Amino acid sequence: MKEKGSLDPRGREFAFRVGLSMAFLLVVHLHYLNVHLGADVNFPALYVIGAAYLLYSVATYYFYHVLSLKGSLRVMAALIDIATLCTAIHFSGGVESYTFLFLGLAALIGGVYGDVGGAALASVLAMAGYGVVAALDARPVEGYNLAQALLLRYGYLLGISVLETYILDLLLKDRKRLRMLYDVSQSSSRGPALHSVLKEVTQRTAEELRAEVGLVMFYEEGSRSLVVQQPATGIDFSTTSRLWIPLDSDNLLAASFRDGTPLLLYRQQCRSLDAEELLPGYPLVDLIACPLEARGKRIGLLVLANKLSRRGFGRRDLNLALMLAPNVSLFLDNALLFRRSEEKVAQLTSLIRVVDVINTVTNLDQLYNLALDVIKGLFAADRALINLLDTQSGTMRTVRSFGYRADQEEGRPGRPYEMVENCYMLQHDEVFLCTDTLTDRRCPNMLVSRETRSVMCAPMVAGKKVYGILHMTSRYPNAFDQEDATLAKAIGEQIGLALERAQLFEEISQLAITDEMTGLYNTRHLKRVLGEEIKRSLRYMRPFSFIMLDIDYFKNYNDRLGHLRGDEVLRIIANLLQQNTREVDLVFRYGGEEFSVIIPEVSKEEAYTMAERIRRVIQDHVFPFEEEQPGGNLTVSMGVANFPVDASDAEEVIDNADRALYRAKTQGRNRVCTYDPALDGRTFPPHLTELKGGAAPPPA
After folding, report:
1. Are residues 521 and 456 in the same domain?
2. Are residues 487 and 526 in the same domain?
3. Tell me: the pLDDT tens digits for 280-325?
4. Domains in the chain: how many in total?
5. What string of DSSP letters covers 219-270?
6. Residues designated as active site
7. Same domain? 526 vs 670
């Protein structure tokens, strides 16, 4: 990248040649000011030389790219420059003292060609040219000691050439350093992202010091380690992803960062060290490391190294790296600040989105999953739990988690989350933040394992009610800070409000599908669940059975003892059904004195056995005032149908179970009948009025 105000090589050479010729002609005309040059001046020859040199300057300017002044042409151009200068001095009267003002300009011809080698070449050619001029000069003035003059002038020429070569070397190096810093600053201003700044810094510093590897290691407080950042020069991502050095290790790079001292390892030193002692798993032949500091705090290391190069680093390379380090630190610190600001904006944006999404979630399972995703996205947590408070038992229950093994999950709920009264966060009503479990023992129930170093707990609250806890851990110390605690508190409050709303919504939804008297599911929910069960049965090729149950002579009982006694019987039978069915079975109040049961993955024969057992349990149960019922006790009749054996859809399952129930009623009640197409054909009216609460019952 070209700096502002600097000429390209073609313009620089042209300006140098024109300036040199015009300056020389000006000096040789000093005789008009009574300045004696020591000999006669051959003005015609000087004018011819000056004009020819100007034409040469113009020609090289316009045909610069055609000539491509490199290699041998470069040497030829330097010879022309030196020869012209020497010839002009000769025709101005010899090697007089005044003309030595121009000898120093010869060394600067090297500046035309852009490096120290050009300056050294120009100096050698100048000395050779002036030697020829001195040998051919046969007109010394009176009192002129040629040997003394030659010695003096050659000494002067040598001294000024060495001095100007050294100055030029410093100028060129400083210019390169300034150009590098300028390029990096321009890159930072165009794109302050850390990735682009790292790429520019590693590439340019590696070029400047001719290093094969250039990388930056940042210090991570959470893990107390030096971690290589991408992009890096001369080293791929798969390698850098494995390069991290604990700060408390004996690694020389870790020691350099801890002590704040630069590190220079020569080739012999690197060979005497194991590669694992420098960059783990990455062999190097020589290395420079400079601590990077910004705002009075060390932020990382600038590392330059070679893998195969025969050129080793020296003290000058280390000094140059130390000169670059403060500016590199500034660029990287600004990039880090920019990244942190971006992360903060991203956190706030995520919080806004979380709030928007949470406000639309009414399902508890969806809410738990969303809360877990929020923890994964916003915090540096290795493990997390979402625990709900059970106010009745005084314990906590884990509803979602990540990072824990299956055997660890099976222990929930249990210690250490057994009793709510032992929770530090709930006792102090604030976010619990533990940056290092080795030194902070405020809460004995932090789920601390050997690899856990940081813990943060935030309450899920709505108003003054605490619904649960967001529990996060990390294997690194200082993984969470006060900003994380503030953010976790805000998220916990939003999730708490959503929990309150979701629980209320589920309660309302539950009321819509629940029979108020018995607490069982109602007919509306039966139709939805039965449809889902049929789909599941067809998908997995697994049958299910369906039971219809009706209380025998319930209308007599209800009319004789009143509706309150009848309602009590309905509740007792509902409890008996729930107690004598499996957890996967679903019990419904179908309507009036009828109940139904869905029994997944059970054949009709197995369902008959289960129904018979339920019938006997109800028959043996002592109901209030049942002695006045026919037979001396209160009984039930049941019909059983199976899908897909007896039906092809939900309506047919209910209808055929009802037909089997009708047959049980007509055969004397207090019995179980399974659907049989031969016995329960279409000639049987499935919904007799009395069986649904109407006229006289069929004969016993």
Report:
1. no
2. no
3. 556 677 888 889 888 888 888 888 888 766 667 878 788 878 877 8
4. 4
5. EETTTTEEEE-SS-BSS-HHHHTT-EEETTS--HHHHHHHHT--EEE-HHHH
6. 593
7. yes
